[in-house]
Structure formats: structure tokens, C-alpha cells
Design goal:
This protein is of the alpha/beta class and 154 residues long. The chain contains three helices and seven strands.
């Protein structure tokens, strides 16, 4: 079971609809056009379109499985006394005094540009169930990062 935000769920549904309603018909049309050109054994366009169809169907099946197992978390029921899925966390890197804000999200919603980190990432795993004022040592590829939790909110 995958827990996620309503926003993440809706985004996944929209991606799946786009794949099924827009991209898949385009690929099927490309296959039909390539098939009309004759000999399929040496038809590059046909083989490329078939590979694209296979890749697309695989992505569709994956997104369908994710949605089948998805559960939307109601943010109004979540607490802000400790860090959990969908928590916004403000923290300070004690080595550099840099301030960071992250949102702990499902792996399917993770996007570093938006400040969303996967609940399965090393930083999120170290932060889970911690409270404001706690200091956390996180093992990252560059070594150990010491973080102090400044604020938790939804």
C-alpha cells in the first residue's frame, strides 16, 4: 500500500489519462502508418513504433498498479508534533548553518526541485518520528550530516 497526498494522487491519475488517451493512440497510429509502407521485416519505423508502444504499455501498467494500491492521506487528521509522511520540515545543517525545508512524500511524488523528498530516502528515514529541537545525524554519500529540526507543519 502506498500512502500519498491528494495532489500526488490527482497528478498520477492525470498522467495515466494522458498516456491512455493521447500518447497510446498516437503510437497506434504510427504503427498503422508504418505497416502500410510494406515489408515489416526491414521497416525501421514499424519496429521503433512497436518498441514505443511496448514502453508506453509498461508505463501505463505501472501507474495503474500504483493507483490500485494508493491510499490518499487526509492532512487534517495528521499531527505536527513529530515528523511523518506529508510533514513540512524546516531544519538547519549544523556544519554549514544552512536552512532547508523539505516535504516528506511518497516515492512517486518526490521532486527535489519542489523540495519534496521520498519517505524512503536516507534523510527522510532519519527524520521520521523526530520532534522540533531534535538533532539528527544522517548518513549521506558525502559522509554524516547533522541536522537540527526547527519547525514541523503541514
Amino acid at each position: 500500500m502506498e500512502y500519498m497526498s491528494k495532489e500526488g494522487y490527482d497528478k498520477l491519475v492525470a498522467e495515466l489519462r494522458h498516456l491512455e488517451k493521447v500518447e497510446l493512440p498516437q503510437v497506434r497510429e504510427a504503427i498503422a502508418e508504418a505497416r502500410d509502407k510494406g515489408d515489416l521485416s526491414e521497416n525501421f519505423e514499424y519496429h521503433a513504433a512497436k518498441r514505443e508502444q511496448s514502453r508506453l504499455l509498461s508505463r501505463i501498467r505501472f501507474k495503474q498498479r500504483v493507483l490500485e494500491n494508493a491510499r490518499v492521506l487526509e492532512t487534517s487528521l495528521l499531527q505536527t508534533d513529530c515528523i511523518q509522511l506529508l510533514s513540512h520540515v524546516e531544519m538547519t545543517n549544523l556544519a554549514t548553518n544552512a536552512h532547508m525545508t523539505y516535504i516528506i512524500v511518497s516515492p512517486h511524488e518526490a521532486n527535489m526541485r519542489e523540495g519534496k523528498i521520498s519517505v524512503k530516502s536516507p534523510i527522510a528515514q532519519a527524520l521520521l518520528k523526530k520532534k522540533v529541537g531534535d538533532t539528527v545525524a544522517v548518513k549521506v554519500p558525502a559522509g554524516i550530516m547533522n541536522l537540527r529540526i526547527e519547525r514541523i507543519y503541514l
